[in-house]
Amino acid sequence: MDGNLTALQFPVAAPPRPGEALLIAPGVKWLRMPLPFALDHINLWLLEDGPGWTVVDTGYSMPRTKELWEQVFAEHLRGLPIIRVIVTHYHPDHIGLADWLTRRWQAPLWITEKEWLSARVMSQGAEDFGPLRRNFARRAGLDEEASELFGERENSYRRGVPSVPAGFRRIADGMAIEVGGREWRVIVGEGHAPELACLYCAETRVLISGDQVLPRISPNISVQAHEPDGDPLALYLASLAKLRDTVPRDAFVLPSHNLPFFGLHTRIDTLAAHHRARCDEVIAACHVPKTCLDLVKVLFRRALDRHQMGFALGEALAHVNFLVHQRALDRVVGKDGVHCFIRADGDSSALNRTT
């Protein structure tokens, strides 16, 4: 989603090359590491911290990323150690090498409690998630065979996060963290992850936004199989409003993907409008009963592989659950266990085929 890109300002035209560290803000160096996905990179941050360095996010666990980190250690730390690792949230590209880095430097992990717990649960294996995922897919409208395949999907999380530190230092919303004599305030965002920690330095007007605000794409907002009736979109929209109220419009935003930018409030407004537009599409489609799978085809007008289908189902259901909670849609469960959705003012007689 590239909406309103012309209203954003990108002061640096190109990212650092792999293994480089570019000074991007006072006391902040920018690293970029590869990812084995269509979204092929993540931005990481090195903060000057007195006798050492604080790392913000770690990258996905794979040999190439470790090699690049070793290059950074050799060429860009000025002989000083890593003394702290801060992780914004539990997704593999952010926490994947946290255990390796903390062991490598004997440095503590700083993270919110929900993100640490989520990482620990996910890294222990997916055996318990199979039945949940199968039921999630069946409710969404996939047939029995497709639901079985969906439930058997391997635990890809452990590929990117082979281990998670056994202990951590808890950070929380509103907490001040002193880094190199500057205060960074924790601003927790929800929706994309349970307790994602953004970091804002008022002195330099710099926001490390994690995945909460990205300049070119909309962060994935998904219902998860273990919480099928959750409302992450409401949490995300509330978090966007909180960021808009807390961080000034002229802040310099350091996102986890794409390029650093100015125009935070504009981008927040665009993201909120994007989700409102998606909700309008769902409401329009639900003049007759629709399953979540039907709505995936409305919202994603391209072929999806099995990996992408998981994200797409979660994203479609996020909009559906939001609208159910807003009483714009009604939910009806058929005898086959499939959930259908119809506009609150729609033709309910059409639901006879599913009840």
Notable features of this structure?
11 helices; 7-stranded mixed sheet; alpha+beta; 355 residues; Metallo-beta-lactamase, Chain A; 6-stranded mixed sheet
Q: What's the helix and strand layout?
A:
Elements: E1 22-25, E2 28-34, E3 41-49, E4 52-56, H1 63-76, E5 82-86, H2 92-95, H3 98-105, E6 109-111, H4 113-123, H5 129-140, H6 144-151, H7 157-160, E7 169-170, E8 176-179, E9 182-189, E10 196-201, E11 206-210, H8 232-246, E12 252-255, E13 261-262, H9 264-285, E14 290-291, H10 292-299, H11 306-325, E15 329-333, E16 339-343
Parallel strand pairs: 4-5, 5-6, 6-7, 11-12
Antiparallel strand pairs: 1-2, 2-3, 3-4, 8-9, 9-10, 10-11, 12-13, 14-16, 15-16
Helix pairs in contact: 5-6, 8-9, 9-11, 10-11
Give an account of the 3D structure.
This protein has about 350 residues and is an alpha+beta fold. The chain has a domain at about 5-125 and about 155-275: Ribonuclease Z/Hydroxyacylglutathione hydrolase-like (Metallo-beta-lactamase, Chain A, 4-Layer Sandwich), CATH 3.60.15. It is about 35% helix and about 20% strand. It contains eleven helices and 16 strands. The protein has helices at about 65-75, 90-95, 100-105, 115-125, 130-140, 145-150, 155-160, 230-245, 265-285, 290-300, 305-325, and strands at about 20-25, 30-35, 40-50, 50-55, 80-85, 110, 170, 175-180, 180-190, 195-200, 205-210, 250-255, 260, 290, 330-335, 340-345. The strands form three sheets. Strands 1-2-3-4-5-6-7 form a seven-stranded mixed beta sheet. The protein has a six-stranded mixed beta sheet with strand order 8-9-10-11-12-13, covered by helices on one side. A three-stranded antiparallel beta sheet has the order 14-16-15. The radius of gyration is 21 Å and the shape is globular. Residues about 350-355 have low confidence and may be disordered.
